Amino acid sequence: MSASWDPDVKGSFFGFDEFKTNLGNIKDGLKRTRENAILRERMVGLPEAEIEEAINELNKKEQKASESKMTMEEKLSKNLE
């Protein structure tokens, strides 16, 4: 837990910074696992078309969020493609 997961990042002497980072990563992973379990329970019995529509909406939201974080230069470059 006190080692860096990134081989290119030099860790601190006692590993406190790495420990905090790794503990946060584990907490985030457990939260996502719990959220995924809840979603799977909700999906049981839903029509396939409704599931696909929800996935498409989620993809649109994620794309919009990532685009809002882009710099102006990145946006212009993407529009030129």
Report on the structure:
This protein is mainly α. The protein folds into two domains: 1-44; 48-81. It has helices spanning 16-43, 48-68, 72-80. The model has no long low-confidence stretch (mean pLDDT 84).
Radius of gyration (Å): 19 Å
- Taking all residues together, what is the mean pLDDT? 84
Record field, number of beta strands: 0
What percentage of amino acids are in beta strands? under 5%
Percent in helix: over 70%
Which residue ranges are poorly predicted, with pLDDT under 50 across at least 5 consecutive positions?
none
Category from helices, strands and their pairing: mainly alpha
- Helix and strand pattern: HHH
**How many helices in DSSP terms?**
3
Biggest β-sheet strands, sense, barrel: none
Separation of the first and last Cα atoms: 43 Å
Estimate the global geometry from the Cα principal axes: flat
Summed up, what is this model?
The protein has 81 residues and is mainly α. The protein contains 3 helices and no strands.
List descriptors.
about 80 residues; mainly alpha; 2 domains; 3 helices; about 70% helix
